[in-house]
Amino acid sequence: ITSGSLADVAVVWAKTEDDKIRGFLVEKGAPGFKTWDVHGKCSLRASVTSGLAFSDCEIPEENLLPGVSGLKGPLSCLNQARYGIGWGALGAAMACYDTALQYAKTRKQFANKPIASHQLVQEKLAWMITEIVKGQLLA
Q1: What pTM does this model have?
Q2: Is 1 domain-assigned?
Q3: Is 56 within the bounds of a domain?
């Protein structure tokens, strides 16, 4: 969860005793509620990603979000966020491709020729950009 350990209040969706999915506000320090930071991520390291855990956590009724049930609300929000995640991944992939292409053009080997002049390196670069463009067309 993004910024979960920094927030004073978490918006949480959970199944209630009547088997309905409802939204709740859970305050930091509530008994049975804990958060922690996730370390060692491969990307988005500037974003504080956190884990949330609940153990015998009872939420007061006044913390129930009124007039909201089911997953339509939270899932519609997540669907919008997925665009940004996809575009960010494509941007990172394009940066990797640009770095690889620049390296292949400047790295010389075998008769002092750039490795970009070798067919296998060209095939790998062509595959990289093809996959990136496929992703761009899907996004």
Answers
A1: 0.61
A2: no
A3: yes
- In terms of residues, how long is the chain? 139
Record the tokens describing residue 37, joined without a space. Answer: 């930071």
Q: Residue 82's domain is classified under what CATH number?
A: 1.20.140.10
Residues 85 and 115 in one domain: yes
**Structural domain contains residue 2:** no
pLDDT, tens only, 34-78 = 999 999 888 777 788 999 999 998 888 899 999 888 888 788 878
Q: What one-letter code names the amino acid at 26? A: V
The answer on 80 and 65 residing in a single domain is no
- Alpha-carbon separation of residue 129 from 15, 56, 117 (angstroms): 44, 50, 17
Q: Give me the domain span that covers residue 100.
A: 74-138
Residue whose pair of structure tokens reads 């949480």 in the numeric block: 12
What distances in angstroms separate CA 36 from CA 12, 15, 96, one per listed residue?
Answer: 16, 23, 31
Give the separation between CA 115 and CA 107, rounded to whole angstroms. Answer: 6
pLDDT band at residue 118 under the 50/70/90 scheme: very high
Q: How far apart are CA 136 and CA 83, in angstroms?
A: 11
